[in-house]
Amino acid sequence: MKIEQLVSQIHQKKSFLCVGLDTDLEKIPQHLLQEEDPIFAFNKAIIEATHEYCVAYKPNIAFYEAYGIQGWKSLERTMDYLNTNHPEIFTIADAKRGDIGNTSTRYAKAFFETLNFDSVTIAPYMGRDSVEPFLDFEDKHVILLALTSNQGAFDFQTKKIGGEELYKEVLRTSKTYRNSERLMYVVGATKATYLEGIRQIVPESFLLVPGVGAQGGSLQEVCQYGMAQNVGLLVNSSRGILYASQGLNFAGAAADKAKAIQLEMAVELGKLHQGS
Ligand SMILES: O=c1ccn([C@@H]2O[C@H](COP(=O)(O)O)[C@@H](O)[C@H]2O)c(=O)[nH]1
Q1: Which of 31, 146, 159, 238 could lock 185 by a disulfide, CB 3.0 to 4.6 Å apart?
Q2: Residue 43 near residue 78 (C-beta atoms within 8 A)
Q3: Is the ipTM above a cut-off of 0.90?
Q4: How far, in whole angstroms, is CA 112 from its chain's centroid?
Q5: Does CATH number 3.40.718.10 belong to domain 3-275?
Q6: Distance, CA 276 to ligand 1 centroid (Å)?
């Protein structure tokens, strides 16, 4: 998908919500366990209930790999369903991959060609030749981990090397990569105040921002410090939407949660237009 199509969706739906499809058989409503493919049945119901309020879906690959071949089949069915029924919605494989070039190319083919995702999350630790193979795919995007939402982010990412924090070095160096216009970055909502400095380095890049809802990040703060002229934000919520209810009306409850976030996002987008 082209960035312009994503931006156009954001304005059309007045939303920059990404719904995380972290589907956990221990948390989905019990009655779905009788279905032939409970993970897909849950995802389909969530997608149908929430698609008008969001512009992206992000299956975290761990939740599918955990169930072996059956989990991988559920992921494939979910992607086929999205690409067939909602091709305008941006898809993110939250896989956090990255390896020597030869191997990265195989990962890229798996997510961009076989599963037909629009983007994949990549760890920057192995450097240029581990990331560039993912950047070779037209209209596909690499979402590089910059400053993650967890406490462990302070172990390495905020440490200074040569006078600058490592996450800033990741942002600056990655801008020199081949096809760097296909890069986006992960920045946790729990680190919202850092977004001001991040925007000085990557003013218009799209940022995937997990950590609102269950992890306690604030949507308002993310917008205050991180919104760009092209919006430039995809704010993710997974558990806060998926498991709003474990009863028969789980999808309705998820829709209510997604709509509540979308309405807050509409207010934030309104402020952007006032400022221009
Ligand atoms: O820094 C990061 C990077 C990725 N994640 C992932 O996002 C979702 C968040 O789920 P919630 O239930 O909304 O907390 C999940 O898939 C994480 O693995 C992140 O949280 N932080």
Answers
A1: 146
A2: yes
A3: yes
A4: 15
A5: no
A6: 32
